[in-house]
Sequence to fold (363 residues):
Amino acid sequence: MAILLDNLNVDCYRGLSHIELTGFNHVNILVGDNNVGKTSVMEMIFALNAPYSLDIWNEIARKKSNSRGFTYYSAYQTLFPIDNEKRIKFEGSFFDYGMVSVSVSAEEYNTTISEKELNRINGLIKTGNQNSQDSYVDTKVLEISINSRMGEVEFEIYDFQRRPPRIPVNDEKKSLWAYNTVFLEPRDGLENDFSYLKKVILDSEYYSQLVEILKEFDQTITGIIAVEDMGRTEYYVRTSNHNTAIPISVYGDGLKKALIIFACMASNKDGIVLVDEIESSIHTSAMKKVFLTILNWAKKLNIQLFISTHSKEALNILLNCGDEYQEGVTVFTLYRNENGSYVRRLNCTEALELQNRMGMEIR
Fold:
């Protein structure tokens, strides 16, 4: 396994301020109550990979927002601390790249734009009389500036905006990206996007391991196939009791969640994988096999893992992973009270000691 990112220092981001997570390990488990900042920590690690890429910031904004009534304006607003100036600042230390600092500021103001410009921003085409006089609408706008040692990006977002802001990233800047990083939140994989599966299917070793994992959810599964149809790839499962392959989309969320995790790991060799609420959708009867295989793949693929969980069962399985992995596992417990946020760091042995012998709750 790998240690690519060593620490994360947070000045201010969402609800976190003046907090430091040091001594990241091969496998890092983030625990704590709801709304203490576990997901926020993962978002910052994700952004550190390429802080000037709007694709990454747009993905972070989408993950935390409700689809109903979604606008990028409101989504970006939630990135900033509540009741404070619109400012974000954090930094992370990479073993190969050194310190990467990120600073984001925003200015909000009222303005007026034409209906024609509003339609252009939202990708709409005006119908009817093209010669009619254009009307004007009042709107709010966020002017956002993102700064890092890799460069500066400035852009605007309007309060009606449903299309993501875009600024192309040239090849020279892409070459500065620290590591391949993938961030999976609880809903990922449940909407039938299995594009990551291709690499797993082409690798015989990982393919056979994945099939064994799927048998935890359905003992009759014998394989996975990809079918090309009019430029689209559809994925199917072969079973021992059906002559016809079954679309993966008809299976339950647990199988889909396992698929997306392993497929993303296979596509992210020598990188960082972040899995928020790893236990979501996976039944406790399948957790041990799934989680131990995740640790095994992380080791073989040289991946640094960041995992969050609310589940005592999931935490126990990860801590009792065996001598082969325990040295590479560290638990970070996040706390918050009226005075601020705090972090406790425990290695695997310390966490087991507190939990098993002293009866302390470390989640």
Remarks:
- The two ends are 24 Å apart (CA to CA).
